[in-house]
Amino acid sequence: EALGRRVLCGTEYATVRYVGSVPPTAGIWLGVEWDDPQRGKHDGTYEGTQYFKCQHPRGGSFIRPNKANFGVDFLTAVKNRYGLNEEQDAQHGTENTLVFGKKTVEFVGMDSIAEQQRQVQLNQLVDISVHECAVSHAGQKEEISRTCANIRHINLSKNLISSWETVTAIASEVQNLETLNVSGNKMKFPSTSTSVSSVFSKLRVLALNQTGITWTEVLLCAPGWPRLEELYLTSNNIMVLERPDNILQTLKLLDLSDNQLLDGNQLHLIAHLPRLEQLILRNSGIASIDFPDAGFGCKTKMFPSLKYLAINDNKISQWSSINELDKLPSLRSLQCHNNPFMDTEKNPETLRQLIIAKISQLEVLNKSEVRVISTICMSLGKALNHYRKIFGNDWLAAGGNWNPEKNNPSEEFLAAHPRYPSLCLKYGAPEEGELKAQQPLTLKNQLLTLTIKCPEKPEQKPVQKKLPESMTIQRVKGLLYRLLKIPGSELKLSYESSKLEGKEVELDNDLKPLQFYSIENGDCVLVRW
Questions:
Q1: What pTM was estimated for this model as a whole?
Q2: Residues 397/400/405/408 CA torsion (nearest 10 deg)
Q3: Domain map (residue ranges) of the chain
């Protein structure tokens, strides 16, 4: 039965939507819906008669059956991919005869020896990739288990698999399957609950990107994935989620990127997966995040184990969503690039400090460590202190007061800055001198007065220099080369500050500016070579 099958025509993928005649022409035609609608000509209607339907108005066309490649079975693809089939052996000279002078000698049993060697090689395969090998079906029953007994990892992406049933048929012959990638196969999934089998009983990683699966279908299949730890579901047009009850309880990573979720509240429906540590939501249409079960300064019961969250390329425009992330009890790493709220602050370092100040347990922000050992005292401390100062006037205006008995900031202020009271407890309420209007960012205001010392060369007198805080370490080394006549590649820089109490912070990245290391006026740069 060709209807519903996936086919390849040249390099273009399509799904068969119609098999039959198309008058007035003679013979059988296949009506196909192309993955790339630009390849098509119509929506399945020809000469006023609708033969099939397409999602795109020009996504369909008719082709003759002999133009369609319906694919090969799994084992044939494996043999082709790894050069282990009979045809390739013959092409490469594995023949049964050998010529000695004028005599031709035939080697009896050479075919069976070659076959045994192939079997041994196939049985040694643990990790198999048949990406883009036109796999469409499982093949003869028990042939896979007899031939490839040691497979643990299979990449079946971008093939011609048209149903989850085919995937199950292949997997049923792989006893220890741990990783399976079937991304890029547009296929049909079960629409009703099926009996739970042990086919995927050892599966830990499953990729279903660009398969057309819905969240409802995920939940129908999930009882068969009792040990699943990582699930990838990108680019499936998933809009609505449902709560997984007694399924997916072992899941540690879930990737829903490139699905346009209806709203941020959809996340509440997956918030009680007990072991979920990584949630990837890049370009998922999210405009806001909130955890209504917890008040300001409290931790939510949602996502109890979540350590890593990626929300890049979304529509989050309000800082209140970043405040909400502080409620996540286990969050350590955040990616949030390309969201509108980031446009509210032009200085990238200030932006970084604001995010760090709002999320108390954060260790990694946008792939850059917050708590690097050498800079923990200054970088994090400065971020929190800076945050406390720049919103000090707002705190006063909202009812904040240096006198604890009169300190009563409004609910609106606490909603916008839920961590502010705890920062005041730690660093003290901002003093009046700290709350003077911010000076405009002119070059003069950004110059740092630094003392430069060579601790191992006492004959070199300390010098004072005014350097822009945006100056990279590489440029500082260039300046020191002119001063000391020592090549920059040989210089090792660090700095000390009165706030560091005798500790040194290494300036170890030539591409970073001085402000990255939170250097302030009066600090001392130490030069060694």
A1: 0.72
A2: 90
A3: 5-67, 72-85+115-369, 376-427, 447-528
